[in-house]
Amino acid sequence: MRSLVATVLGVWAGPAAAFCGTYVGSPGVELTNKTSQVIISRQDNITTLTLANDYQGDVTNFAMLIPVPEVLEEDDIQTVRPELFQRFNDYSAPRIVTYECSDFYWEDEMLNGGTDGGGAEFDSSVSESEPPPVVVEGEYEVGIYEIVILSATEPGALIEWLEENEYGADPQAEEMLGEYIEDEQFFFAAKVNLSEVPEEGTFLEPLQFSYESDVFGLPVRLGTLNSPGEQDVVMYILTDSDEGQVGVSNYTEVKIEDECMVDVDAEGGADNYYGTQFGEAWAEEGTGEGWITEYAWATSWCDPCPTDPPSQDELQEAGFDGETWESYFTRLRVRYTPEAADQDIMLYTSGISGTEQIRF
Q: Is residue 178 very low, low, confident or very high in pLDDT (cuts 50, 70, 90)?
């Protein structure tokens, strides 16, 4: 059985006249054949993760295992519309723009004071005074998924439990699972409830869950066991506006040259050009891991706008509590090899509420 682990597995400045160019198109770059997407909402110590399940194959082989810092209740878990990922991608993707000279007539004015921008049965021989090595802390049915929250004291026993209960497990994960157990993590495990899958299709809805933790990060190490060599994860991150832009504290930041004129057709298309730029810059670092900010902006506006900014309803669906003008949107791309991803991705809020986007 295949175990799919999520690879996981701003001050609002109002409408602005700046960069009023004519929007042409967004590359929508997919830089590898293994790119995961995750929406992260972070407010105070509450993190809400929404995972896009792009699983292909027999759904009977689908399984997800993610370490979590606390026992999740049923109300903490739900499914969301897959269209939410498309909306966030369309809004924040690297973009191609064209300008006329007249688009920049506002510049002098702006510079002179304009607007700112299910539990297993255990052997009865186990003593009642000795807790079992794996405990089912919660068991829920959410949408098409059967979900359990597990605690464990022995990684081998955890793998055995997952296999026996058809949640999938990779024996190679034992050492990593042991580290999470030592860190007193619980485990969120999901599989498809086959009786809930429509006969006409096997589409898997995105899963969303929330938890409280002082740690702001994304667990990716288990997902490297299924790595094709290099993996990308695109994170759409929502924070309170005063928390500003999000960055990665323990991976290497990658920079590329943008804000420049490019003959996109001569470069083989927008996807190819940006993909090449990022790939070369990432490789030049030579660390086997790296991240880049593809977009960072107050959520209530954008310039140029490839599409309308996310609505308040869409932000709420993503787990953000508040008005659009109270939020800030950061899009990060992280690439890593399994060897280099020896730590989970650790995130931080910078308090910087500027504007940043990749555009050519």
A: very high
